[in-house]
Amino acid sequence: MPPWQRTDYCGAIRASDEGREVALWGWVQTRRDHGGLIFIDLRDREGIVQLVMNPEHNAAAHSAAGEARSEFYVAVKGKVARRSEGTVNAELPTGEIEILVHEFEVLNASAPPPFQVVDGEATAEEIRLKYRFIDLRRPEMQSNLRRRHQALKAVRDHLDQNGFVDIETPILFKSTPEGARDYLVPSRVNPGKFYALPQSPQLLKQILMIGGFDRYYQIARCFRDEDLRANRQPEFSQIDIEMTGPRPEDIQSIAEGMIASVYQRVLGIDVKPPFPRMSYADAVDRFGIDKPDLRFGLELKNLTSGFAGTAFKVFAEILSRGESVYGINVPGADPLTRRELDELTESVRTRYSMGLAWIKVGDAGWQGPIAKYISDAEKSAAASIADLKQGDTLIMVAGLPDKIRPVLGDVRLRLGAKFELDKSDELKFLWVVDFPLFDYSDEDKRMVAVNHPFTAPNPDDLKLLESTPLKARALAYDMVLNGQELGGGSIRIHSRELQLKVFELLGMSREESVDRFGFLLEALRYGAPPHGGIAFGVDRICMMLCGTESLRDVIAFPKTQKAVDPMSGAPSEVDPRQLRELSIKVTS
RNA sequence: GGGGUCGUAGUUCAGCCCGGUUAGAACGCCGGCCUGUCACGUCGGAAGUCGUGGGUUCAAAUCCCAUCGGCCCCGCCA
């Protein structure tokens, strides 16, 4: 048992505490031993405070402090004293005072830490993760995880105030092989059968609506067995929301209020709903992507009409097939060098097997490899569409719009990064709406759901399901912030017939539909109310709140790119007896 | 599955192109001295399977091949 209880947090003591007798616990951050006087910066979750051990004041405490080393966990008693003039440290919140220690006890020694907790150089992430218990002591990790807590608290408060009920759904659920790979869990009592960890509680929350809960939310853990990225972990958290009877704008309004509350309470920043809406078609046409970063321009321009009948063979051939030319005007204020243009051209060639053309509006007219093939009429047409001025550079790609707009969207983001336009701390929220319901998968030779197969078609497009389903729009919406998708949702199908129709369009037989989603189809037979909702990526929101580039910095115990936890060593082999009980044989 | 990049004291790195004495530096660590430091100072010291395996060579941290691992990206992620 500790010899005494803590009265205060180290980092929370202030000049107003002067004269108080305090008892503190904390880690030794640094020890400055002057032979006579010893100073120790003692750290806890609130920060550091300076301890002073004076042999004339208390010899035993001084001698005990002399034995303390980095990351020892110690308990002290002492008196809060104002620092004398000239020894105040303006850099520290506790810099006006120090603790004159008269009792000093080491509660637990520490091996020399593998890296310095504070003031050390940036440590390899592998080492940080292996010794996560030390890494988590770093002020940055403390701050990130507490912001995460504050964000989730704000979310819960907001949803609670709006009548949403937090309901837990199972982690052991049924495999539904549409979408990502499932994590499987063998069932011992049902040999040869498996649960799947949920990729999201999507179906369960729909069932909850049918079950009469009307407004549900959950901070739900989700699992997807796919390759990792800086912003993708195999397990992650969603703010999962569902309600009955909403129009898209009802969900959007609740979500906007929730996000505004998060920014207000975590960062003290006012964001002003409602957020602007942009159709999917516009987003793709103007930015080449369905989650545009609106902090900067560099929009895509459709130059097709300007080059009708061009003599430039490359364009002429592509246009003769009814395809398009799109371009980006890079303003002369931020000129690209010839070398940068060549690198851009080369990278577009290698990444997309596509040609990139460019011209520069110079003093002597258009310059660049293709300038001589472009007629004056085409130049003025293109200049007018793309608003070209002296010194501007026009970057162009020709081909099928669906192929070239994402390429230019990528080029746009790279230009934004090059000019550091993506460094702005502006918050450009928007809703992307009117997503298509289906997309055609060349790989699977069939239509696939753009969102998920439970998304309701726009009622205006219902008749398109029979004729041209790829043109049907969904009642789906994504919230986007600065080029990152924070969350997405939709109104769901609540009619069994329509749901079966959509499954059929996705190439699923009646038997497959019933086998995979029979419980949903059954539930839809019993007075299922119209319903819809949204889900937000907690980890990505926290990345934005903390200004970090990696999800791993907002998760206490994340996994590496190989989905390994370097601290525990998971995943690991298991005892053969465990496998026998599960009727599982490992073949590799 | 593919591309890129990194792997050298506890940590962060230099050395590698162009093979050749005892593999260096900083921080940290250990010991001495030091009563106003807060990146304390100062004197001294310890500390390395150069990721692993193989090859070339009189000789490999350095060149070649393979392999493992970290990170970033493509594929994948309804």
Write the layout of secondary structure elements.
Elements: E1 21-33, E2 38-44, E3 47-53, H1 59-67, E4 73-82, E5 97-108, H2 125-130, H3 132-135, H4 139-161, E6 165-166, E7 184-186, E8 194-196, H5 202-210, E9 215-223, E10 235-244, H6 248-267, E11 277-279, H7 280-287, E12 300-302, H8 313-320, E13 324-330, H9 338-352, E14 357-362, E15 365-367, H10 376-386, E16 393-399, H11 401-418, E17 429-433, E18 438-441, E19 446-449, H12 464-467, E20 476-481, E21 484-491, H13 496-505, H14 510-523, E22 531-537, H15 538-546, H16 576-581
Helix pairs in contact: 4-6, 4-15, 7-11, 13-14
The structure holds one RNA strand of 78 nucleotides.
Number of helices: 16
**Helicity range:** 25-40%
> How would a textbook summarize the main sheet?
8 strands, mixed
Give the overall pLDDT as a whole number.
94
The overall strand count is 22
Strand line-up in the sheet with most strands: 6-9-10-22-21-20-17-11
Shape: globular
Instruction: Name the structural class.
Output: alpha+beta
State the low-pLDDT regions, or none.
none
The portion of residues forming beta strands comes to 15-25%
